[in-house]
Predict the structure.
Amino acid sequence: MMKTHSNHFQFVNSENAAGLTVLNAVMSDFYYSNHAHDDFALGVTLEGVQEFVCNGQKIQSSPGNVILLNPGDVHDGNPGKDTVLKYTILYIDSDEFSPLLGSAAAMDKKDFRIPEMHFEDRVLRSLILEMSHFVTKADGKSAFEYEHCLYKIATRLTQRLGIFHPGAWRGHKDTLLLKACEYIHDNIEMDISINDLSRVTNISKFHFIRLFRRQFGLTPHQYIINHKVNRARLELKTGEPPSEVAQRFGFFDVSHMNRHFKRSYGITPRQYQHQLLKG
């Protein structure tokens, strides 16, 4: 019986995160020749075995493993062990991603090189798959959620490198950052982006993320979600239906609000409302 071959490559550009492209690939008899990318490539092997040679090392990646290629890393690639290979990969513009790495590490360094090419990391794997899902499914996530997911990826990588800077909460608050908070409070029903906050404060967005996290103990995205949840909680007390509350404060749907609300209060918005308004 003749072996059937299947090769499929789906590239999707993100509409909500600058410089991000996702590739979902299926390969059975395709071989990449030596080549290099100008951006960071972060991928997860989903099925089969992914073989490639990079920097003189031969790598075999199994399902669940993470693959990381720096800009300029020359490599090839093919399915190994006579298997059908499935994988997803994020191509992230280095001009966008390097400042995020610097922000997470509290460093002004512009060029980062990550020495690990192949490893296991459940947290990073989950974040890569989450971002891939955001882009390919286009399921209504806000620009801020894309940016925050990228920041979480940068944070995890700097943790692996041992250079992550946690940024402790500080008592004295910078006037410009307080101005950003005021903007968030006044526009909480809008889809606020990091570019909006950067423009309000006249601080570059990567420097803004670092300063904000250092001063408030939360990233801008976490702060916005926290304030959305708190505002939603006030509206739920008035008896407004959770579906309308979710729509008003920019949650994709009720389940999206449920997830964030439960992380803060342990129960769903509907359960919270029922307990307050019963009787």
In short: The beta strands are 8-13, 20-27, 32-35, 40-47, 49-54, 57-61, 66-69, 75-80, 85-92, 118-119. The chain has a mean pLDDT of 87. The radius of gyration is 21 Å.
